[in-house]
Amino acid sequence: MSHWFHRNPLKATAEVKFDLKMVATDSQALKLCSDLKQARARLLELLPNANHEIDVVEPALTLYLSLLRGLIEVPEGENSDWSKLRHALRYRWSHSMLGTKAEGHYDAIYELVSVLQNTAFWYMKHASKIAAQEEVSMDEAKLVHRSLRRGAGLLKYAQDEWVNKLLESPAPMSDSDPRVHTAYLNQATAEAQEEYEEAGQQCKEYSHTKGPGTQAKPEKHQFFRRLAPIVTRTLEKCERENGMIYHQKIPYDPPELEIKATYGLVAPDDYTLPPMAPLWTPVTYSAFDLTKNLSEDDSSKSKTAQKVEGDLPAVKETEVHHTSKDHKNDSGCSIM
């Protein structure tokens, strides 16, 4: 079952030094720059390893986002929608479907969206790691369920609240492309439901395509091998008993339900940004003086200079062991 979860590589990113020393005019402002750099490095150090526990990754995410929020929004009492530091730094990220080609923007919201997406992918990979065991206990199955819901919640929050605030529209097939984002969200919440035969055929075609994540061979999973006869027997039993015992004919057109059928479907966990870090006070915010950075060479922001940067190296993810043995239940599903 673990092959059903996120298989594409994590997003790669370039180092951000948060080098605002030229515009920071007091010690608290300098400490914020240092804390931002350390918090980002710590989170990026954890994400490539799906074996970490949620209780280790979540605090690292919360710490970094609480600090990053000060580069996006202004402290309480300031009369502005966005922080004056929102466009002070450049952030480069690759996309999970586009290889190592990087996209860079002078926009802290682009950094926020990318971090939320990458952490959501970690949650899905963490769920895969737990479900990859030969035997999955009820508590472990709950952890898988929890991880998928939290991953979906991060994706939904990023898409609903922040993608529309980016300076530039998302590139086609990028992780912020609404089609890609929706596909990942549906994957995490398992809302995509196909007929068995059609899904099986698509899985066979998928395993022969080229691109990220094609090491999975879902048509060989015991879910397909075991569930088909169970579904067939259940359908035949229902048809037989309905005709011979209850004498009820199945209507040609299904009756309309009064409400939208949302019961039984998994919903993403609600997510909101953590509060802004206490260091971001009006005094500290005012200590960043952008006029002191006017002498910076604008050539570093030119398209020619950005092309020289090249692609980003792929993230070296820690390997997760997947058992080759079948799960000991009827359907082969590790989550029931």
The name of the CATH topology of the domain at 2-193 and 266-308 is Serine Threonine Protein Phosphatase 5, Tetratricopeptide repeat
CATH class category of the domain at 2-193 and 266-308: Mainly Alpha
Strand content: under 5%
- Counting DSSP H or I runs of 4 or more residues, the number of helices is 9
Largest sheet: 2 strands, antiparallel
Structural class by SSE content: mainly alpha
Order of helices and strands: HHEEHHHHHHH
Please list the strands of the largest sheet in the order they lie side by side: 1-2
Segments where pLDDT lies below 50 for 5+ residues? 191-196
In CATH, the homologous superfamily of the domain at 2-193 and 266-308 goes by the name alix/aip1 like domains
- By CATH, the architecture of the domain at 2-193 and 266-308 is named Alpha Horseshoe
* Cα separation of the termini: 11 Å
